[in-house]
Each structure stands twice: as structure tokens, then as C-alpha cells.
Design a protein that fits this description.
Layout (H helix, E strand, L loop, with lengths): L1 E2 L4 E7 L25 E2 L10 E6 L2 E8 L3 H14 L7 E9 L2 E9 L4 E3 H6 L7 H17 L2 E2 L8 E6 L2 E6 L6 E2 L5 H24 L11 H18 L2 E4 L4 H12 L4 E9 L4 E8 L4 H10 L5 H22 L5 H19 L1 H5 L4 H19 L5 H14 L19
Antiparallel strand pairs: 1-2, 2-6, 3-4, 4-5, 5-7, 6-7, 8-10, 9-12, 10-11, 13-15, 14-15
Helix pairs in contact: 3-5, 4-5, 7-8, 8-9, 9-12, 11-12
Bound molecules: adenosine-5'-diphosphate (ADP) and magnesium ion.
Adenosine-5'-diphosphate (ADP) binds next to strand 5, strand 7 and strand 8.
Length: 419
């Protein structure tokens, strides 16, 4: 904790491994930093109640939010808890107490969520149209994850959510935790309350967008919240429902676990109780987080992509394991296949796409796009065209249609284009 008494930064509390932020123009309110701070970055931002600025230190971007005294500390603590519970949220970095001509304020510092978009970008940029449908599922899933962790949000809205591409779908991240509360478990009433808030604010957010002319005529603005609620209820049931299974059919336990893993949930514990005079078993699965494939991939390769991206990558690793095992006529460990995949498949593909990565695209998502493209080309050619041919063709198309990758247009020189 640094202490200074003059006007400007009074004190700050920061996690290790980040800058000290001492060089920022603290005597000025955040709204007046434009022109006074050369670290400022203009990046897309959702509607906010408080002043928010983005600053960059050697390519790493941070979001700073100015709040009344004491509020940043609380939000920081909530984010730390959510992070520990592995709920997708922005990473808390620290908080600061600032004194200026306006009085005292607190400032929350979070790591800028790379490769993420506020929802209105998904509606404004025609290239992202195909992601809109996934937005609803992503919102529903975020709420389920929060509630499973025992957290109440209290301010679920499109503006308080960021969206990251995840193997052709979206993953939603919580960005505003000001009203969040973490309990041991969440009551039915609080879950309902969160869903009511979500329905109301999502409807409101979309009406605002419609007013700007960003939505097509006849867009079902009012029904979107209800659809998210339905998706939430279905998912909540899938994850939490008790299941009655006949006593002799214990394979159903494995089925249940596999189904939850497929959705990305890690199952920590299985609870079984006799029911109906011992003829049936009551099965309950307790899930911890939605990092099932991520954890597995990370432990073997060090990569840490989104959950569905990791699932696609693990499928490839499983295929490599199967073909290695049949070549060598012995069972090859998954970690050996993972090592091969990383060095001989993933790394060369990403290297060839360096130009897109440098232009701001997410390497893991690019890789998944190439996989999809490879599948499409192979279907047409009736044989497996291979990763490198698919990458070359993908790069050609990305040059013609930069919107494919959601990055800025490619530079003219084709540095990374594959031959
Ligand atoms: N860490 C972050 N990464 C990316 N964008 C962020 C981050 N923090 C804030 N933002 C952007 O700023 C907007 C406002 O932040 P938010 O916490 O919702 O502030 P407020 O409390 O004023 O509503 C968000 O909608 C988001 O677009
Ligand atoms: Mg907000």
C-alpha cells in the first residue's frame, strides 16, 4: 500500500505483477485525462454510469473506473471472490484512493478483457451478425455459472457483460460487479430476482439500440429477455436436477457426467441415495466450474483458451492419440499426443497466421476458424486437406474479407501468408 498526502493519488493497493500506475495524471478527474495522459487508449465501451478510461503499459491494457469513496474497494473484493470461484469476469488488479479538486474518489483497476466486445458492437458490425444468436445462450450460461457459484449479480444487463468469441460461439464475461454478492449458495428468490433484472435491462438495452436504428425492423426486442430466461431455466435444470435411475443402470451415472463435461462443467462430486425402496437411485452431480476442457488442455499444453475452443482442440488431440496408438500398436498417453499436437499442428498454424494475430485477432479463435475451414474444404475435396492447406486458403479469404476474423483490415504486405 503506497501512501501520499498531496492532491492526486493518496493510496493504492495493487496485485503484484502489474505497473504501479504512479505516472497517471491523478490530480485530474478521469473525464479530464484526454490530452493529459499519453497512455490513454480509445477502445469500444458499453454504456457506463461512471467515468471509465483505458490505459496501456507496454501493450497491456487496463480499465480504470472512477467511483465514490469506498466503492472501488468493495467491487474489487467482489471480483476477487468471483475470480476465485472461476466465474468468467474481468480480472481485478487493484484499487486506488484519489483526492482532487472534486474531493475524494476511489478508482477500480481491472485488466482490459482482450478480444472482447461490448454487445452493441455485435449489433453494429454486420460481420458479427452470426454471433447475435449466440449472445442469448452466452448470457444464460453466465447467469447459471454465477448462481452455481452462489453469487447474486443484482445488475445483470447487456452493458455489464462483455462477449468473447469461443469456437464460433460466444462466452459472456461479467464486467460490473458493483452490486454483486457472494454467498455460500443462492436462494431461489435471489435467482428469480436476478432473472427479473436481466429481463428488464436486456429489453431496455435493446430498445436503446433500436432507437439508434441499429436493429433490423421487427426485431423482437421485448422477447429476447424471456428467451434468455428460458435458456437459463433449461440449463439450470440440466446441471442441478436430481435424476432417478434404476438400481442396475449405473452406466447412467457416467452418462450424466459425460453430458455435463460436454457442456464444459467439471463434476466434483456425485451423490447417490436409495429411493423407492431401494429400486432406484437418486443421483445428484455437483459441478465446480465450467473449465473442464480448459483445465485438461492447460495441464498438458500450457494453453488457456476459452472452454469451447479447448474442447475443439482436445478433440484433435484425441484423434492424434487414436492414430498414434494404432500406428504403434499400443496405447499412447494423451499427454504425448498433446505434445505432438502443440508442436506439430497448433504452433505452425498460429505462426502462419502471425499477421492476423498481430492485427489483434485471438489466436485460439483463429485456430478454431481454421479447423472449421479445414472441415469444409475436406468435405468438398472428399479427403482431409490438412491443416496447412486449410490455413493458406483461410488466409487468402481473410485478405479478401477481413471481417472474417473480426480484426482491422490486413496490411497490404502479406508477411505471414502461407505458400
Ligand atoms: N476490464 C475491462 N475490460 C474491457 N472493458 C471494460 C472493462 N472494464 C470496463 N469496461 C467497459 O466499460 C464499461 C463500463 O464499465 P462498468 O463496470 O459497467 O461501469 P459502470 O459501473 O459505470 O456501469 C463496460 O460496459 C465495458 O464496456
Ligand atoms: Mg455498468
Amino acid at each position: 500500500m503506497a501512501e501520499r498526502n498531496d492532491v492526486g493519488l493518496v493510496s493504492s493497493s495493487l496485485r503484484a505483477g502489474h505497473p504501479d500506475f504512479l505516472d497517471l495524471p491523478w490530480p485530474l478527474p478521469l473525464e479530464a485525462w484526454e490530452g493529459a495522459c499519453d497512455r490513454l487508449e480509445a477502445l469500444p465501451q458499453g454504456l457506463a454510469r461512471h467515468p471509465v478510461v483505458f490505459v496501456s503499459y507496454e501493450g497491456v491494457v487496463y480499465a480504470l473506473k472512477q467511483l465514490p469513496p469506498g466503492v472501488a474497494e468493495r467491487e474489487y473484493a467482489q471480483l476477487r471472490q468471483l475470480e476465485e470461484l472461476r466465474v468468467p469476469c474481468v480480472t481485478p488488479v487493484g484499487h486506488a484512493l484519489v483526492r482532487n479538486a472534486q474531493g475524494e474518489t476511489s478508482v477500480l483497476i481491472t485488466r482490459y478483457l482482450d478480444h472482447a466486445l461490448p454487445y452493441h458492437s455485435l449489433f453494429m458490425r454486420t460481420s458479427l451478425t452470426r454471433y447475435r444468436a449466440h449472445l442469448l445462450g452466452a448470457m444464460a450460461l453466465l447467469l447459471v455459472q454465477l448462481h452455481l457459484a452462489g453469487a447474486f449479480w443484482g445488475d445483470c444487463s447487456l452493458n455489464n457483460t462483455l462477449f468473447r468469441r469461443d469456437a464460433g460461439r460466444l462466452t459472456a464475461y461479467l464486467v460490473d460487479a458493483e452490486t454483486a454478492e457472494v454467498h455460500k449458495t443462492i436462494s431461489e428468490g435471489m435467482r428469480r430476482h436476478d432473472l427479473d433484472i436481466m429481463e428488464e435491462t436486456v429489453g431496455g438495452g435493446l430498445l436503446d439500440l433500436a432507437a439508434t436504428g441499429a436493429l433490423p425492423a421487427g426485431f423482437p426486442t421485448r422477447e429476447i429477455g424471456a428467451t434468455i430466461r428460458q435458456q437459463y431455466e433449461a440449463l439450470w435444470d440440466t446441471v442441478t436436477a436430481e435424476q432417478l435411475i434404476p438400481f442396475g443402470e449405473s452406466y447412467r451415472i457416467r452418462e450424466r457426467v459425460r453430458r455435463l463435461n460436454e457442456l464444459g462443467f467439471s463434476v466434483d462430486q456425485i451423490e447417490l441415495q436409495p429411493a423407492r425402496d431401494g429400486e432406484m437411485l437418486r443421483l445428484r452431480a455437483l459441478v465446480t466450474d465450467r473449465h473442464f476442457h480448459r483445465n485438461m488442455l492447460h495441464s498438458m499444453t500450457g494453453l488457456d483458451p476459452e472452454e469451447m475452443q479447448a474442447r475443439a482442440m482436445l478433440n484433435e488431440i484425441q484423434q492424434i492419440k487414436a492414430s498414434l496408438s494404432s500406428q504403434l500398436r499400443r496405447s499412447v498417453p494423451l499427454s504425448v499426443a498433446a505434445h505432438r499436437w502443440l508442436n506439430e499442428v497448433y504452433a505452425p498454424v498460429v505462426e502462419r497466421m502471425r499477421v492476423l494475430v498481430d492485427a489483434g485477432a485471438d489466436p485460439a479463435e483463429l485456430y478454431c476458424q481454421v479447423l472449421e475451414h479445414k472441415w469444409y474444404l475436406s468435405e468438398r475435396a472428399s479427403h482431409d486437406v490438412g491443416h496447412l492447406a486449410a490455413t493458406s486458403d483461410f488466409l487468402l479469404r481473410a485478405r479478401e474479407r477481413p471481417s472474417l476474423t473480426g480484426t482491422t483490415p490486413l496490411p497490404d504486405d502479406d508477411g505471414g501468408r502461407a505458400g
